[in-house]
Write a structure and sequence with these properties.
This protein has a single domain, classed as TIM Barrel (Alpha-Beta Barrel). The N and C termini lie far apart (39 Å). Helix 11 packs antiparallel against helix 12. 42% of the residues lie in helices and 16% in strands. It is α/β, with parallel strands linked by helices.
Length: 279
């Protein structure tokens, strides 16, 4: 297990033992959305000590410039479905652990939707990926969401989602935030692996920081925020502010003050009042 532990440690800050992961695998599902239409430029803005890992699809690593410019651990995502599918909740494997290792992965990511019609197939696939990760000493991040007739933010469902991920071999589990500190504490205490909270669509930066503060107060090991970061008007500034909270170097008030110093802050928050959130 030494290889897996060594690689897993790369995804966490050495002082706080917390992590900020930025997933950028959305293009395989929804296409070249804002922030991912020029992926190389977005990654350049994340090149700082505040981001502990990025989630990319294998095809993105065919771009040599992206590999050269990405100096944070790369988590290769193996699951996919497109918005054009009649079964968008059915995530199928489009790569292997061995392939991810060959292209330079530091960890593996898979996605499973509990409660979806094809849950049993996704469980089987994730189990096989977990076996391969064990053999090769690769950390496994399992993104576990609740679908079907269950409310996605239902605390009991999210507790189950986190525990299922651990039981089938996850080293880190990503779940939705339940919406309050007390119930998310129950999610975190229900497993013995690190829990990171999902982000969802772009939102008011101050509201995002307040939510992250609650997430970390509940005992989470970090966050996995994609659109809230790469669709920001200033990805570097928002990751710096998030780091203040996640890595516990500054208070929520100082983190908010930091984001308000951004020249784009007023413009960004004003435009949000007149536009829908990204779904």
């Amino acid at each position: 297990m030494y290889g897996k532990i060594k690689r897993l440690n790369k995804l966490f800050d050495t002082r706080s033992n917390h992590t900020i992961i930025v997933p950028m695998d959305h293009g395989a599902t929804v296409g070249p959305i804002k922030g991912l239409d020029s992926l190389g430029e977005t990654i350049n803005q994340l090149e700082n000590k505040f981001v502990n890992g990025v989630v990319l699809c294998k095809g993105q690593l065919n771009d040599i410039d992206i590999i050269k410019n990405c100096h944070v651990p790369i988590i290769v995502h193996l699951s996919n479905s497109s918005l054009l599918s009649p079964s968008t909740n059915f995530k199928t494997l489009v790569g292997s652990v061995e392939e991810a290792i060959a292209i330079g992965a530091d960890a593996i990511s898979v996605h499973i939707n509990l409660g979806a019609d094809n849950e049993h197939t996704m469980l089987y696939d994730v189990g096989k990926v977990a076996d391969a990760c064990f053999r090769w000493g690769m950390p496994l991040l399992v993104m576990t969401y609740v679908r079907g007739n269950k409310v996605q933010e239902n605390p009991d469902s999210i507790k189950l989602a986190a525990r299922v991920a651990q039981e089938i071999g996850a080293d880190i589990v990503k779940v939705n935030y339940t919406g309050d500190i007390e119930s998310f504490q129950e999610v975190v205490s229900g497993v013995s692996i690190p829990v990171v909270a999902a982000g969802g669509g772009y939102d008011d930066p101050i509201g995002v920081l307040q939510t992250v503060n609650d997430i970390m107060t509940a005992g989470a090991s970090g966050i996995s925020f994609g659109r809230k970061v790469f669709q920001s008007t200033n990805p570097t500034k928002i990751t710096e502010a998030l780091s203040m909270i996640v890595h516990k170097t500054h208070s929520l008030e100082k983190a908010i003050g930091h984001i308000q110093l951004s020249d784009n802050y007023v413009e960004a928050t004003t435009s949000l009042r007149f536009s829908h959130k990204c779904s």
